[in-house]
Amino acid sequence: AKENGGNTYCFYTSELKKTNEEKLYIQHSIRKALKQNEFTLHYQPIVDIETGDIVAVEALLRWYHPKRGWISPATFIPIAEETNLIQPIGDWVLRKVCEQSKVWRKKGLPHVQIGINVSIKQFLQADLVEHIEHVLRTYDLDPFCLKLEITESMAMHHIDYVLAQLQSLKNLGLQLAVDDFGTGYSSLNYLKKLPIDIIKIDRSFVQDMVKHSYDLSIVRAVIEVAHSLQMKVVAEGVETEEQLAILKREGCDRAQGYYFSKPLSAEQFEQLVQSEKGR
Ligand code: C2E
Ligand code: CA
Ligand code: CA
Ligand code: CA
């Protein structure tokens, strides 16, 4: 930056200072948000492509900041990961979905699996498995109700540790999914090593497969390999009828995206399920 003259350099340092201040502010706000219960979860339906039934949901964090309004998880999760605040957030999410699952069961809603996103920082915690087991027992919940989503890039790091951790979670009876598949440059061959149930094809492939044969080939290959390993495939970010038709033709099992529903509050989700029952 220096060869462009002093101005650029000054600009750069002041920007850096600003982002550091910004991070500290978000950090401070997250601590407050945990104390003051500012987080909520929204639930996005995942649909069986063959039957059209809602078979699962993904829980997604929402945060309404008292001064700034809605802040995206894409903004605050990375900061939470850097500062170890992801642990208390992750714990809050886990307890919240267990509680919600129990409420839905009591209300007599059809059984749906709830998926939560687990960050690498949580995943590397040595007591993660015991912790989840403890929380499930506290809420008297069948482990099969809970699905953990870990990203493909996570699954590729610390391979031996990740494998052991996944196996323990599997032994507990949880469902395991690999998220954002296709973005992490792992080989399809690597999948056979992982004790996982579900592969989620990243949204970028679903969007591009309509125009680009390369992306369609990837989608096709992932479905074929996943099925040969008895895994189910979820397509993420399905927005159009055309995308859904292609996925159906290719034998994809499940779909998630705005075409079916955006993420909904618990109440909105209940209403949706009730209206579907009357179909
Ligand atoms: P993700 O796990 O890949 O979640 C899917 C994201 O795609 C969500 O964004 C969802 O709202 C969005 N989405 C769903 N359908 C469509 C569609 O048809 N089109 C488009 N364009 N987008 C769609 P969201 O809720 O903003 O979350 C962003 C990311 O933040 C998530 O990506 C996940 O990595 C992270 N995240 C969210 N909640 C949690 C959490 O509780 N814990 C952790 N560790 N990460 C979370
Ligand atoms: Ca996810
Ligand atoms: Ca994803
Ligand atoms: Ca993602």
From TrEMBL:
GO molecular function term, any single one: cyclic-guanylate-specific phosphodiesterase activity
Superkingdom: Bacteria
Species whose genome carries this gene: Anoxybacillus thermarum
Domain EAL, residue spans: 23-277
The name this protein goes by in its record: Bacteriophytochrome cph2
Positions spanned in the full protein: 252 to 530 of 532
